[in-house]
Amino acid sequence: MNYIGSKYSLLDFLHETVKKVTNYEDGTPYSFADLFAGTGVVGAYYRGLGCKVLSNDLQYYSFVVNKHLIENTDSVRTDLLDHLNSLPGIDGFIYNNYCAGSGSGRNYFTDSNGRKCDAIRTELEKLLKANEIDKDTYFYYLASLINSIDKYANTASVYGAFLKNIKKSAAKDFILEPLPIVNGPKGKAYNKDINELVNEIEGDVLYLDPPYNERQYCANYHVLETIAKYDNPTVKGVTGLRNYSDQKSAFCSAKTVCDVFEDLIKKAKFKYIFLSYNNEGLMSLDQIKDIMSKYGEYSFYTKTYRRFKADKDENRNISANETIEYLHCLVKKDS
Protein backbone atom coordinates (compact mmCIF):
# COMPACT_ATOMS: atom_id res chain seq x y z
CA MET A 1 0.00 0.00 0.00
CA ASN A 2 1.04 3.57 -0.73
CA TYR A 3 0.95 4.74 2.87
CA ILE A 4 1.86 7.96 4.67
CA GLY A 5 4.90 7.35 6.83
CA SER A 6 5.61 3.87 5.49
CA LYS A 7 8.98 2.59 6.65
CA TYR A 8 9.44 0.15 3.78
CA SER A 9 12.36 2.14 2.34
CA LEU A 10 13.91 2.57 5.79
CA LEU A 11 13.88 -1.06 6.96
CA ASP A 12 17.63 -1.52 6.51
CA PHE A 13 18.33 1.69 8.44
CA LEU A 14 16.04 0.57 11.26
CA HIS A 15 17.45 -2.96 11.36
CA GLU A 16 21.09 -1.90 11.43
CA THR A 17 20.41 0.68 14.15
CA VAL A 18 18.52 -1.79 16.33
CA LYS A 19 21.40 -4.26 16.03
CA LYS A 20 23.94 -1.56 16.90
CA VAL A 21 22.09 -0.37 20.00
CA THR A 22 20.92 -3.73 21.36
CA ASN A 23 23.78 -5.98 20.20
CA TYR A 24 21.10 -8.45 19.12
CA GLU A 25 22.38 -10.32 16.07
CA ASP A 26 20.17 -11.90 13.41
CA GLY A 27 18.81 -15.14 14.77
CA THR A 28 18.69 -13.92 18.37
CA PRO A 29 15.22 -14.70 19.73
CA TYR A 30 13.71 -11.54 21.19
CA SER A 31 10.34 -9.84 21.32
CA PHE A 32 9.61 -6.84 19.12
CA ALA A 33 6.62 -4.54 19.60
CA ASP A 34 5.41 -2.42 16.67
CA LEU A 35 2.67 -0.35 18.27
CA PHE A 36 1.88 2.18 15.51
CA ALA A 37 1.86 -0.64 12.98
CA GLY A 38 0.19 0.89 9.91
CA THR A 39 0.52 -1.52 7.00
CA GLY A 40 2.64 -3.90 9.05
CA VAL A 41 5.83 -3.77 7.00
CA VAL A 42 8.05 -3.40 10.07
CA GLY A 43 6.34 -6.08 12.14
CA ALA A 44 6.27 -8.54 9.24
CA TYR A 45 9.96 -7.90 8.62
CA TYR A 46 10.88 -8.66 12.22
CA ARG A 47 8.63 -11.72 12.33
CA GLY A 48 10.54 -12.97 9.31
CA LEU A 49 13.78 -12.45 11.25
CA GLY A 50 12.51 -14.78 13.97
CA CYS A 51 11.16 -12.28 16.50
CA LYS A 52 7.91 -12.71 18.37
CA VAL A 53 6.05 -9.59 17.30
CA LEU A 54 3.39 -7.62 19.15
CA SER A 55 1.50 -5.36 16.77
CA ASN A 56 -1.01 -2.58 17.40
CA ASP A 57 -2.86 0.18 15.61
CA LEU A 58 -5.89 2.28 16.50
CA GLN A 59 -7.23 1.96 12.94
CA TYR A 60 -9.24 -1.21 12.35
CA TYR A 61 -8.11 -1.69 8.74
CA SER A 62 -4.53 -1.71 10.02
CA PHE A 63 -5.44 -4.23 12.72
CA VAL A 64 -6.95 -6.51 10.07
CA VAL A 65 -3.80 -6.42 7.94
CA ASN A 66 -1.55 -7.00 10.95
CA LYS A 67 -3.82 -9.72 12.32
CA HIS A 68 -2.90 -11.66 9.21
CA LEU A 69 0.76 -10.69 8.89
CA ILE A 70 1.64 -11.23 12.56
CA GLU A 71 -0.66 -14.09 13.64
CA ASN A 72 -1.47 -16.24 10.62
CA THR A 73 0.40 -19.40 9.68
CA ASP A 74 0.28 -21.63 6.63
CA SER A 75 -2.75 -23.38 8.12
CA VAL A 76 -5.07 -20.77 6.54
CA ARG A 77 -7.08 -21.80 3.51
CA THR A 78 -5.61 -20.40 0.32
CA ASP A 79 -8.00 -22.13 -2.10
CA LEU A 80 -10.75 -19.50 -2.15
CA LEU A 81 -9.04 -16.96 -4.38
CA ASP A 82 -10.61 -18.12 -7.65
CA HIS A 83 -14.04 -18.30 -6.03
CA LEU A 84 -13.82 -14.78 -4.68
CA ASN A 85 -12.45 -13.32 -7.91
CA SER A 86 -15.23 -14.95 -9.93
CA LEU A 87 -18.07 -13.43 -7.90
CA PRO A 88 -20.40 -11.11 -9.85
CA GLY A 89 -20.48 -7.56 -8.52
CA ILE A 90 -23.30 -6.36 -6.28
CA ASP A 91 -24.69 -2.95 -5.33
CA GLY A 92 -23.39 -2.79 -1.76
CA PHE A 93 -22.20 -0.06 0.58
CA ILE A 94 -19.01 0.78 -1.30
CA TYR A 95 -20.75 1.07 -4.67
CA ASN A 96 -23.67 3.04 -3.22
CA ASN A 97 -21.49 5.56 -1.41
CA TYR A 98 -18.13 5.76 -3.21
CA CYS A 99 -18.82 5.14 -6.89
CA ALA A 100 -20.16 7.74 -9.33
CA GLY A 101 -22.66 5.41 -11.01
CA SER A 102 -24.69 5.12 -7.82
CA GLY A 103 -25.42 8.84 -7.85
CA SER A 104 -23.37 9.41 -4.71
CA GLY A 105 -21.30 12.09 -6.44
CA ARG A 106 -18.14 10.33 -5.25
CA ASN A 107 -15.57 8.79 -7.53
CA TYR A 108 -13.25 6.68 -5.37
CA PHE A 109 -13.59 3.53 -7.50
CA THR A 110 -15.02 2.62 -10.87
CA ASP A 111 -18.53 1.22 -10.64
CA SER A 112 -17.42 -2.30 -11.52
CA ASN A 113 -14.57 -2.29 -9.00
CA GLY A 114 -16.78 -0.93 -6.24
CA ARG A 115 -19.36 -3.63 -6.93
CA LYS A 116 -16.66 -6.31 -6.96
CA CYS A 117 -15.31 -5.08 -3.64
CA ASP A 118 -18.82 -5.28 -2.18
CA ALA A 119 -19.29 -8.82 -3.50
CA ILE A 120 -16.07 -10.12 -1.99
CA ARG A 121 -16.60 -8.31 1.32
CA THR A 122 -20.15 -9.62 1.63
CA GLU A 123 -19.09 -13.17 0.76
CA LEU A 124 -16.36 -13.19 3.42
CA GLU A 125 -18.89 -12.19 6.08
CA LYS A 126 -21.31 -14.84 4.84
CA LEU A 127 -18.68 -17.61 4.88
CA LEU A 128 -17.57 -16.68 8.40
CA LYS A 129 -21.09 -16.58 9.84
CA ALA A 130 -21.87 -19.95 8.21
CA ASN A 131 -18.70 -21.42 9.78
CA GLU A 132 -17.41 -22.32 6.34
CA ILE A 133 -14.17 -20.49 7.10
CA ASP A 134 -12.44 -19.82 10.42
CA LYS A 135 -11.34 -16.40 11.64
CA ASP A 136 -7.73 -16.91 10.53
CA THR A 137 -8.86 -17.49 6.96
CA TYR A 138 -11.34 -14.62 7.20
CA PHE A 139 -8.61 -12.17 8.21
CA TYR A 140 -6.29 -13.53 5.52
CA TYR A 141 -8.72 -12.68 2.73
CA LEU A 142 -10.01 -9.48 4.32
CA ALA A 143 -6.45 -8.19 4.74
CA SER A 144 -5.76 -9.13 1.14
CA LEU A 145 -8.90 -7.27 0.03
CA ILE A 146 -7.85 -4.09 1.87
CA ASN A 147 -4.34 -4.26 0.45
CA SER A 148 -5.54 -5.07 -3.08
CA ILE A 149 -8.39 -2.58 -3.47
CA ASP A 150 -6.11 0.30 -2.48
CA LYS A 151 -4.21 -0.19 -5.75
CA TYR A 152 -7.41 0.62 -7.68
CA ALA A 153 -8.40 3.72 -5.71
CA ASN A 154 -9.04 6.81 -7.82
CA THR A 155 -7.11 9.13 -5.51
CA ALA A 156 -3.87 11.07 -5.54
CA SER A 157 -2.62 8.90 -2.68
CA VAL A 158 -4.95 9.11 0.32
CA TYR A 159 -8.73 9.10 0.71
CA GLY A 160 -9.02 12.72 1.77
CA ALA A 161 -10.22 13.43 -1.79
CA PHE A 162 -11.01 11.59 -5.02
CA LEU A 163 -10.06 12.52 -8.58
CA LYS A 164 -12.62 13.93 -10.98
CA ASN A 165 -11.57 11.65 -13.83
CA ILE A 166 -10.67 7.98 -13.51
CA LYS A 167 -6.89 7.54 -13.63
CA LYS A 168 -5.22 4.71 -15.49
CA SER A 169 -4.50 2.43 -12.54
CA ALA A 170 -8.03 2.85 -11.15
CA ALA A 171 -9.59 1.94 -14.52
CA LYS A 172 -8.17 -1.60 -14.48
CA ASP A 173 -10.46 -4.46 -13.51
CA PHE A 174 -10.05 -5.32 -9.85
CA ILE A 175 -8.30 -8.56 -8.99
CA LEU A 176 -7.97 -9.81 -5.43
CA GLU A 177 -4.33 -10.66 -4.77
CA PRO A 178 -3.24 -12.57 -1.66
CA LEU A 179 -0.91 -11.07 0.90
CA PRO A 180 2.08 -13.27 1.77
CA ILE A 181 2.01 -15.56 4.77
CA VAL A 182 5.00 -14.59 6.89
CA ASN A 183 7.17 -17.43 8.12
CA GLY A 184 8.12 -16.81 11.74
CA PRO A 185 6.93 -17.09 15.35
CA LYS A 186 3.24 -16.40 15.84
CA GLY A 187 2.74 -13.00 17.44
CA LYS A 188 -0.25 -11.00 18.63
CA ALA A 189 -2.12 -8.10 17.02
CA TYR A 190 -4.07 -5.48 18.98
CA ASN A 191 -6.54 -2.73 18.09
CA LYS A 192 -6.21 -0.41 21.08
CA ASP A 193 -5.09 3.03 22.19
CA ILE A 194 -1.34 2.63 22.61
CA ASN A 195 -1.19 4.44 25.95
CA GLU A 196 -3.67 1.93 27.35
CA LEU A 197 -2.11 -1.12 25.72
CA VAL A 198 1.38 -0.33 27.03
CA ASN A 199 0.13 -1.10 30.55
CA GLU A 200 -0.67 -4.68 29.50
CA ILE A 201 2.46 -5.74 27.63
CA GLU A 202 6.21 -5.96 28.06
CA GLY A 203 9.20 -7.16 26.08
CA ASP A 204 12.65 -6.49 24.69
CA VAL A 205 12.37 -3.96 21.84
CA LEU A 206 9.63 -1.35 21.46
CA TYR A 207 9.40 0.43 18.11
CA LEU A 208 7.30 3.59 17.87
CA ASP A 209 6.30 5.26 14.60
CA PRO A 210 3.59 7.75 15.61
CA PRO A 211 1.99 10.36 13.36
CA TYR A 212 4.32 13.32 12.83
CA ASN A 213 1.76 16.01 12.05
CA GLU A 214 -1.88 16.99 12.43
CA ARG A 215 -3.21 14.81 9.60
CA GLN A 216 -5.34 12.12 11.19
CA TYR A 217 -4.98 8.66 9.65
CA CYS A 218 -8.63 7.94 10.34
CA ALA A 219 -9.62 10.71 7.92
CA ASN A 220 -6.97 9.92 5.32
CA TYR A 221 -7.96 6.25 5.07
CA HIS A 222 -11.64 6.33 6.01
CA VAL A 223 -12.75 4.31 2.98
CA LEU A 224 -10.43 1.44 3.92
CA GLU A 225 -11.79 1.62 7.47
CA THR A 226 -15.31 1.20 6.14
CA ILE A 227 -14.31 -1.72 3.91
CA ALA A 228 -12.64 -3.37 6.89
CA LYS A 229 -15.56 -2.89 9.29
CA TYR A 230 -18.34 -2.98 6.68
CA ASP A 231 -20.62 -1.55 9.32
CA ASN A 232 -22.85 0.65 7.14
CA PRO A 233 -21.84 3.90 8.82
CA THR A 234 -23.51 7.24 8.27
CA VAL A 235 -21.19 9.13 5.92
CA LYS A 236 -21.14 12.87 5.35
CA GLY A 237 -19.78 15.55 3.07
CA VAL A 238 -18.19 15.56 -0.34
CA THR A 239 -15.74 12.82 0.59
CA GLY A 240 -18.19 10.60 2.48
CA LEU A 241 -16.39 10.69 5.81
CA ARG A 242 -17.50 8.32 8.56
CA ASN A 243 -17.56 9.49 12.18
CA TYR A 244 -14.02 9.05 13.48
CA SER A 245 -14.21 10.99 16.74
CA ASP A 246 -13.21 7.91 18.76
CA GLN A 247 -10.14 7.30 16.59
CA LYS A 248 -8.42 10.66 16.74
CA SER A 249 -4.83 10.39 17.89
CA ALA A 250 -3.44 12.68 20.59
CA PHE A 251 -0.11 12.36 18.74
CA CYS A 252 -1.62 14.55 16.00
CA SER A 253 -2.06 17.60 18.22
CA ALA A 254 0.70 20.00 19.21
CA LYS A 255 -1.17 20.61 22.48
CA THR A 256 -1.15 16.99 23.61
CA VAL A 257 1.68 15.17 21.81
CA CYS A 258 4.47 15.81 24.33
CA ASP A 259 2.36 14.76 27.31
CA VAL A 260 1.05 11.61 25.68
CA PHE A 261 4.51 10.71 24.39
CA GLU A 262 6.12 11.06 27.83
CA ASP A 263 3.31 9.04 29.38
CA LEU A 264 4.04 6.27 26.87
CA ILE A 265 7.80 6.26 27.46
CA LYS A 266 7.36 6.35 31.22
CA LYS A 267 4.99 3.36 31.31
CA ALA A 268 6.71 1.21 28.65
CA LYS A 269 8.15 -2.01 30.13
CA PHE A 270 10.76 -2.57 27.42
CA LYS A 271 14.54 -2.51 27.66
CA TYR A 272 15.08 -0.79 24.32
CA ILE A 273 12.82 1.87 22.80
CA PHE A 274 13.19 3.24 19.27
CA LEU A 275 11.22 6.22 17.94
CA SER A 276 10.98 7.12 14.26
CA TYR A 277 10.34 10.82 13.78
CA ASN A 278 11.37 13.33 11.15
CA ASN A 279 12.75 16.84 11.43
CA GLU A 280 9.40 18.44 10.56
CA GLY A 281 7.24 16.78 13.22
CA LEU A 282 5.05 18.34 15.91
CA MET A 283 7.62 17.51 18.58
CA SER A 284 10.97 19.23 18.26
CA LEU A 285 14.16 17.21 18.41
CA ASP A 286 15.03 18.87 21.71
CA GLN A 287 11.65 17.98 23.18
CA ILE A 288 12.10 14.34 22.23
CA LYS A 289 15.62 14.27 23.63
CA ASP A 290 14.54 15.91 26.90
CA ILE A 291 11.70 13.45 27.42
CA MET A 292 13.57 10.27 26.52
CA SER A 293 16.71 11.23 28.44
CA LYS A 294 14.73 11.23 31.69
CA TYR A 295 14.27 7.48 31.46
CA GLY A 296 17.66 6.13 30.46
CA GLU A 297 20.55 6.37 28.02
CA TYR A 298 19.54 8.36 24.93
CA SER A 299 21.07 8.54 21.45
CA PHE A 300 19.87 9.11 17.90
CA TYR A 301 20.73 8.21 14.30
CA THR A 302 19.65 9.93 11.08
CA LYS A 303 18.94 9.14 7.45
CA THR A 304 17.88 11.46 4.62
CA TYR A 305 15.10 10.20 2.37
CA ARG A 306 12.55 11.39 -0.18
CA ARG A 307 9.30 12.68 1.27
CA PHE A 308 5.94 10.99 0.69
CA LYS A 309 4.87 11.66 -2.87
CA ALA A 310 1.37 12.85 -1.96
CA ASP A 311 2.93 16.16 -0.96
CA LYS A 312 3.37 16.95 -4.65
CA ASP A 313 0.09 15.36 -5.69
CA GLU A 314 -1.90 17.51 -3.28
CA ASN A 315 -0.11 20.67 -4.43
CA ARG A 316 1.19 21.55 -0.99
CA ASN A 317 3.74 24.32 -0.74
CA ILE A 318 6.79 22.19 0.07
CA SER A 319 10.25 23.72 -0.03
CA ALA A 320 12.31 20.52 -0.04
CA ASN A 321 12.08 17.15 -1.78
CA GLU A 322 13.86 15.39 1.05
CA THR A 323 13.42 15.14 4.79
CA ILE A 324 15.59 13.80 7.60
CA GLU A 325 14.36 10.73 9.45
CA TYR A 326 15.55 10.51 13.04
CA LEU A 327 15.67 7.21 14.88
CA HIS A 328 15.73 8.12 18.55
CA CYS A 329 17.04 5.37 20.83
CA LEU A 330 16.59 4.76 24.52
CA VAL A 331 18.14 2.09 26.71
CA LYS A 332 15.66 2.31 29.54
CA LYS A 333 16.57 2.25 33.21
CA ASP A 334 15.23 -0.57 35.38
CA SER A 335 13.71 -2.49 32.46
From N to C, what is the helix and strand string? HEHEHHHHHHEHEHHHEHEHE
Strand residues, percent: 5-15%
- What fold name goes in the CATH topology slot of the largest domain? Rossmann fold
Which structural class do the helices and strands define?
A: alpha/beta
Poorly predicted sequence stretches spanning 5 or more consecutive residues: 310-319
Query: What CATH architecture label of the largest domain applies?
Result: 3-Layer(aba) Sandwich
**Total discrete domains:** 2
Global shape: globular
State the major sheet: 7 strands, mixed
CATH level-4 homologous superfamily of the largest domain: Vaccinia Virus protein VP39
Q: In order across it, which strands form the biggest sheet?
A: 3-2-1-4-5-7-6
Q: Report how far apart the termini are.
A: 35 Å
Radius of gyration: 20 Å
Question: How many distinct helices?
Answer: 14
Overall pLDDT metric: 94
In helices, the fraction of residues equals 25-40%
Overview of the molecule:
With 335 residues, the protein is an alpha/beta fold. It has 14 helices and seven strands. Strands 3-2-1-4-5-7-6 form a seven-stranded mixed sheet. Helix 2 links the parallel strand 1 and strand 2. Helix 3 crosses helix 7 and helix 6 runs antiparallel to helix 7.
Secondary structure layout:
Blueprint: H1 11-22, E1 31-34, H2 41-48, E2 52-56, H3 60-71, H4 81-85, H5 93-98, H6 111-129, H7 135-149, H8 168-171, E3 188-190, H9 194-197, E4 203-208, H10 217-220, H11 222-229, H12 257-267, E5 270-278, H13 285-293, E6 296-306, H14 310-313, E7 322-332
Parallel strand pairs: 1-2, 1-4, 2-3, 4-5
Antiparallel strand pairs: 5-7, 6-7
Helix pairs in contact: 3-7, 3-11, 6-7, 12-13
